[in-house]
Amino acid sequence: MRAIMTTITAGAAVALVAGCTASPTTRPAPEQPPTSAAPTSGVEPSGEVTEVATGLAAPWSVVALDDSTALVSERDSAAIQHVGADGALAEVGVIDGVVPGGEGGLLGLATHDDASGDTWLYAYFTAADDNRIVRMPLDTSSGASPSLGSPEVVLEGLDKARTHNGGRIAFGPDDLLYVTTGDAGEPSRSQDPESLSGKILRLTPEGEAADGNPTDGSPVYSMGHRNPQGIAWDDDGQLWAAEFGQNTWDEFNRIEPGANYGWPEVEGIVEDERFVDPVAQWTTDESSPSGLGYVDGTFFLAALRGERLWAISPDGDAAAASTDFLTGDYGRLRDAVAAPDGGLWVLTNNTDGRGSPTEGDDRLLHVELTPVPEG
Q1: Burial code of 335-368, b = ≥16 C-beta within 10 A, e = fewer?
Q2: Order of strands, edge to edge, in the sheet holding 333-338?
Q3: What is the pLDDT of residues 56-97, one digit of tens each?
Q4: Which pLDDT score, from 0 to 100, does residue 41 have?
Q5: CA 263, 267, 271, 276 torsion-angle sign
Q6: Mean pLDDT, rounded, of the chain
Q7: What pLDDT is attached to residue 250?
Q8: Which has the higher per-residue pLDDT, 271 or 318?
Q9: Percent of the chain residues topping a pLDDT of 70
C-alpha cells in the first residue's frame, strides 16, 4: 500500500399510505441549516489517508472479508474485484446478465454466512428488464483470491430506469437482508404500498418477505423514498438511511418499520404529520449521498456531487450534528464502510462518467479515525 498525507479539514456544517402524484414541497435553503453543528462525541478522521488500491473502474460497493481484504463491485464492467492485503486487484468474476446504462449496472454487494457455515456473496444489479439480486457461493479457503460459484436469483422484477435504481444491500443485526430501491423515475411508486420501488425492503436470506414486516407477506419495510443508497445500523440496532433529494434537500433518516418518508409529496424537513422528517439534511450541491458506514458512534456518509465525507452524530429523533471532511480532496465519493482495523474505507467514484478522473482513479482509501476531542 502507498500512503499519502492529506490535510483533513472540518467544515461547519407512519403508517403505510397509498397514492399521490403531487410535486414535492420545497423550501429555500436557510442561511445556517439546522444540522450544521459539529459532533461532540464519537470518532472523526485524523492523520494519514492511505491509498489501499488504485485503478478501479466506476466502483460502487465495497465489502470487507474476514482476512481483512475486500471485494469491490464495478458498475459498468460487471466485474467483482478482490483487493489483496498489498492493494493488488484480482478479478474474481463477472456477473452474467448485467446491463449497465445511466446509473444502472452492478451495484451493491453484501456477504452472509448461513446456518451451515457457507459464505454467500449477494449482488444487486440492473438486468435487461429489471433490477434484481443474486447470490453466489463465496470460497475463501484457497488463501489467495476467493472464487465465486454459480449465481441463484434471490429477488427479481424490481423496476429499473436510467436513474434512481437504489441498489444498496446489507444484512442487519437480525440476520435479514435489507435492500434500498429507488422510484425508477416514477415518483408515485414511492407512495404505492403495492410497488417495491421507492422503498426499503426486508427479506430473508432466500428472498422471501421477512416475518414481522409491517404488512404480512410484503417485503416493504418503509416507503416514501426517492433514491436511497446508504443504510447502516448503530450500536442499538437502529437502522438509518441516506437518500438523494431532488432539487433542494438530501436526507439522513431514522428508519422505523411502516414509516412513510414523504417522497414525492415532500422533500426535507417540512413538519407534516403524515410523514417522518429527516434528522439531518443538506443542500444537494453539498451532498448527493451514497454509501453510509458506522464506526464507534459516528455515521460516515460518502457524498458524490458534494465531493466530501460527512461525519454524523444522531441524537434520537432530534436534529443530528454533522461535519464535512476530505472536501474536494478526492473528488466524488461513492461508499464508506467500517474497515477491519477500526478505521474507515472510502471508495471514490470519478470514472463513472460524471467525475473528473485523475491518475490512479478510482481508489479505495483508508481513513484513520480518532475520538472527537471533548469540549
Answers
A1: bbbbbeeebbbbbbbbbbeebebeebbbbbbbbb
A2: 2-4, 43-53, 364-371, 344-348, 333-338
A3: 999 999 999 998 999 999 999 999 999 999 999 999 999 999
A4: 83
A5: positive
A6: 90
A7: 98
A8: 271
A9: 89
% of the chain with per-residue pLDDT over 90: 83
How far apart, in whole angstroms, are the C-alpha atoms of residue 301 and residue 319? 16
> What is the residue whose three cell numbers read 444487486?
124
Contact by Cβ (8 Å): 200, 225 = yes
Q: What is d(CA 98, CA 40) in angstroms, rounded to the nearest whole number?
A: 44
Measured CA to CA, the distance from residue 278 to residue 34 in angstroms comes to: 11
Q: Could you report the per-residue pLDDT of 25-62, keeping only the tens digit for each?
A: 444 444 334 445 678 789 999 878 999 999 999 999 99
Written as one letter, the residue type at 93 is G
**22 in any annotated domain:** no
Q: Which of 141, 173, 135, 168 has the alpha carbon at shortest distance from 66? A: 141
Domain containing residue 228: CATH number: 2.120.10.30
Compute the distance between CA of residue 190 and CA of residue 197 in angstroms, rounded to an integer: 6
Is residue 245, in this structure, part of any structural domain at all?
A: yes
- The dihedral over CA atoms of 303, 304, 308, 312, expressed in degrees to the nearest 10, equals 0
In the chain, the amino acid numbered 32 is Q
> 150-166 burial, b for 16+ CB within 10 Å, e for fewer?
ebeebbeebbbbeebbb
Name the residue range of residue 301's domain.
2-13+34-371
The answer to whether position 38 is within a domain reads yes
Whether 105 maps to a domain, the answer reads yes
Q: Stretch 239-261: mean pLDDT, rounded?
A: 97
* Arithmetic mean of pLDDT, 121-130: 98
Total domain count, the chain: 1
CA of residue 328 relative to chain centroid, distance: 20
What are the grid coordinates assigned to 63, written together? 465489502
Instruction: Measure the CA–CA gap between 367 and 343, rounded to whole angstroms.
Output: 6
Cα torsion angle, 136, 137, 140, 145, sign? negative
Pick the more confident residue, 373 or 3. 373
